[in-house]
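quick q for whoever's on today - can somebody do inverse folding on this one?? i tried earlier but teh output was garbage lol. tokens:
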């Protein structure tokens, strides 16, 4: 089956939009149109982002979501969204707004109302959340931090290649907003009660330290059970699952799921 639908790919914290290129090539070959818009403030290349972290700093979830909503509004019909990490949360917010025909949220950041805090998430987030003065700043991961939060399920050699190729500074504000969501703020709130929304697939990697499966499963439980909402666990996969050597397994599963749901 050949599709003429558009897929909007949304990256997460510390990843450049170019990290979706292999996915875009894969889905283009299947007949989809694809877009990978950057977050506000991100430059067109990894090198430019690293050289100008101040342009990325102090961007919050609402500003980021609204920037994607504006892009989507220019399309002829609501697109499919595929998002990773914070991109998976952003995709769910847009789906809840009725702006997407369906969403694949890959190892997403937690929405408001998901209170679980595994030790690995605390450790992975500590470089940012450990200093409240980071709130308005941009943060770059060290290689060791990347290995723990993203690349713990792959070799150090592969991790180094991914780190050098894709990582950029990220605004700290979204991480603080997600961490404080149980107490204050609505930036990470998802309209899970929208009964007109499209299908949703949430995934988890069994070795993911940054967004463990418990968070994705807890998010799924927030949704109206009368609508298509599924969870898929990928064994022995970490947070780098969309960019590492096994990315095509995730892409193929996503494609099959989209086709099964006529997307």
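ok took a stab at it. sequence:
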């Amino acid at each position: 089956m050949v599709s003429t639908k558009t897929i909007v790919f949304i990256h997460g914290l510390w990843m450049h939009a170019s990290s979706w290129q292999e996915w875009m090539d894969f889905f283009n070959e299947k007949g989809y149109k694809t877009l990978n818009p950057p977050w506000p403030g991100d430059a067109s290349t990894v090198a430019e982002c690293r050289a100008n972290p101040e342009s990325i700093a102090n961007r919050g979830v609402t500003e980021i979501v609204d920037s994607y909503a504006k892009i989507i509004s220019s399309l002829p019909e609501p697109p499919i969204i595929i998002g990773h990490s914070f991109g998976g949360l952003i995709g769910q917010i847009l789906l809840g707004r009725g702006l997407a025909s369906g969403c694949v949220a890959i190892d997403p950041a937690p929405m408001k109302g998901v209170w679980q805090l595994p030790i690995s998430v605390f450790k992975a987030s500590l470089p940012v959340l450990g200093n409240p003065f980071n709130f308005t700043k941009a943060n770059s991961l060290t290689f060791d931090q990347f290995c723990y939060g993203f690349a713990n399920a792959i070799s150090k050699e592969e991790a180094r290649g991914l780190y050098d190729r894709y990582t950029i500074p990220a605004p700290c504000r979204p991480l603080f907003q997600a961490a404080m969501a149980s107490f204050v703020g609505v930036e990470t709130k998802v309209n899970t009660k929208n009964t007109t929304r499209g299908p949703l697939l949430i995934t988890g990697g069994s070795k993911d330290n940054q967004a463990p499966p418990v968070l994705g499963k807890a998010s799924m439980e927030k949704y109206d059970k009368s609508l298509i909402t599924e969870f898929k666990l990928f064994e022995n996969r970490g947070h780098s699952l969309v960019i590492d050597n096994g990315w095509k397994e995730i892409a193929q599963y996503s494609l099959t799921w989209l086709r099964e749901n006529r997307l």
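fwiw The first helix runs from residue 21 to 29. also The mean pLDDT is 95. so keep that in mind when u check it
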